[in-house]
Specification:
Elements (H helix, E strand, L loop, with lengths): L2 H10 L8 E5 L4 H9 L2 E6 L4 H19 L1
Parallel strand pairs: 1-2
Length: about 70
């Protein structure tokens, strides 16, 4: 199951659709990144990445999901 397929599955499942998803990929492909964001990814990070940047992105995604839930 690839990232796009996972995002499509989450988008069509009721209670899972609101889970913020950050894609971690080694594929520097603009079209793939665009598709992932279209299907709901909040961020597309390329490997390798600094652990600190992943933590920052997770914190940002959680803040955003809390704002949207209000």
């Amino acid at each position: 199951l690839g990232g796009v397929e996972l995002l499509q599955f989450l988008q069509h499942s009721g209670f899972l659709r609101d889970i913020p998803v950050i894609i971690l990929s080694g594929d520097d492909n603009f079209e793939l990144e665009r598709q992932c964001k279209f299907y709901g990814a909040v961020k597309y990070l390329l490997k390798p990445f600094a652990p600190e940047s992943l933590i920052d992105e997770v914190e940002e995604a959680l803040k955003l999901s809390q704002i949207i839930s209000l």
